[in-house]
């Protein structure tokens, strides 16, 4: 049997609850529901949702925990552009306003550059370069790690990355 969205989000409060749900627990769940713009889906069953809707519910469940550190693995997968920006904007706001730390594994380099203070570029599980996006996302680093020629820049402060071609002399994965 599938849980309703509101109940799935409430599972995030389980480590904090005693035998009963407190008013504070309910408030955290409702704040997370609202923060991820899930009010219209609150009474739907989780199993009936699209992939992007499920992703937003899981993010709301993480937010309901009210932890000091968020560990997020591809939090924008299956999300449309609006919800990608909203999700990472919510994480950024938590970091800025509440001091919540966030460690995000994400493959969208432009989104990472836009919302993260520091980037760490890995290759074969090893750190290749780390720092602010301007130092990490360079054509040389993208070529070395991903085997692509790329252009990197920003438009009115919004970073962008465009792969232009597979770099020569790089074996295909």
How far is the first residue's CA from the last residue's CA?
A: 41 Å
Average pLDDT: 91
Overall number of strands = 6
- Tally of individual helices: 7
The stretches of 5 or more residues where confidence is low (pLDDT under 50) are none
Strand content: 15-25%
Strand order of the largest sheet: 1-2
Q: Largest beta sheet, briefly?
A: 2 strands, parallel
Give the % helix.
40-55%
The structure class reads: alpha+beta
Radius of gyration, in Å, reads 19 Å
Shape type: elongated
One letter per element, helices H and strands E, the order comes to HHHEHEHEEHHEE
Q: How do the strands and helices of this protein lay out in sequence?
A:
Layout: H1 5-10, H2 23-35, H3 51-64, E1 69-73, H4 81-98, E2 101-105, H5 109-115, E3 119-123, E4 126-131, H6 133-136, H7 139-146, E5 148-155, E6 158-166
Parallel strand pairs: 1-2
Antiparallel strand pairs: 3-4, 5-6
Helix pairs in contact: 2-3
